[in-house]
Amino acid sequence: MAATSSFTAADTPRSRIRDLLPTLNLGRFAPGPKNSLTDVPGVLAHTQSIHSHPAAAPGSINTGVTTILPRKDWFHQACFAGLFRFNGSGEMTGSHWIEETGLLHSPIILTNSFAVGAAYQGIYEWAIREYGDEKGSVDWFLLPVVGETFDGYMNDIAKFSVKPEHIVQGMDQASADAVPEGNTGGGTGMLCHYFKGGTGCSSRVIPGEKKDYTVGALVQANYGAMRDFRIKGAPIGRLILEDQEKLMRANPVDPKLLAQAKLLIKLTEAKDKKDGSIIVVIATDAPLHPTQLQRVAKRATIGLARAGGCGHNPSGDIFLAFSTANEIPVQTVTAQARKVDPWTPSTLPIEYVDDQTINSIFENTADAVEEAILNAVCMAETMTGHDNNTVSALNLDQMKEMMERYL
């Protein structure tokens, strides 16, 4: 009788964690109707996967772009924002300006590490098309926000397949639809805990004193070792490895098991040299000021840790939170016009949550980030990519069977 590998594809269709395990406790608060980043009113998103390049071998290009617009008129109306760097082996452009002013007035583009320049240029190309003068000149201020993780194991990253036009297209087509998950957008070629990873989302609705608020999270998950992967405390990654080891001891010459072991050894060696990263974007319509949003961004660490993230030395774990509640005018002082006098201090009406009542926002941020990571892993599909590298999706049938003892 042939051995059944722990890494063989499951019969269960790729599904989100909430659908796979309906009795799993994912927090005290309910998700929004889409359980996605775009449950936050006004937030728009788009994903593109890229699988070809004229100079690349077939199957070796697996990358993409995730575009997030904080609001439709992000160019004139900034959002308050805050950042947290859990581990800094990564890049998020525009972060100095956000830390300096607490303002986000740029799209957020997530892509691969070698595509940061193309994404940066693409934002400018879109803005010049929309807001340049008849000569194509500009007199406004914009620092693009681009985050990255490294997909070089599955993607021939040196081919620079992401182009500025991909970013322009994403900005044109961004919508309030639920964000596709798994092998999508910037997460197309990403790995998570040695499983296929990628893009994941979740949201929570928080009852407020006068109205309900929404917190939404999007992750580009590309970090971690299998041994550390957990689902609500259950050591699923370790259990899968133990099952695989038992099968190998019982069937030491089984060709399928040997092939799987070889793939895992190759992946482990690659990840030990360069662990991946995770970018987390948190949106809310709760009125928060920049310092509060820095605090919210820090809570993404809790969700990451619950899933097994440890912030290893070569991992870029960067979290950005923004609020759509207050609209802060920007582009009010340019070379051509001064809508305000920069030498005469003026005030803006700003609303923000009382710090004494902010706990549920912190808690739901952690819950949404955790679920977003699990959705990224559960929705991702097995992929063979650059250099014939294969990374298996999490076996959902096996995971469900293991989770039964913990539910």
TrEMBL record:
GO terms of molecular function: aminopeptidase activity
Any Pfam family hit: Peptidase_S58
Source organism, top-level taxon: Eukaryota
Family: Belongs to the peptidase S58 family.
Name of the featured protein: Peptidase family T4 protein
Organism: Lophium mytilinum
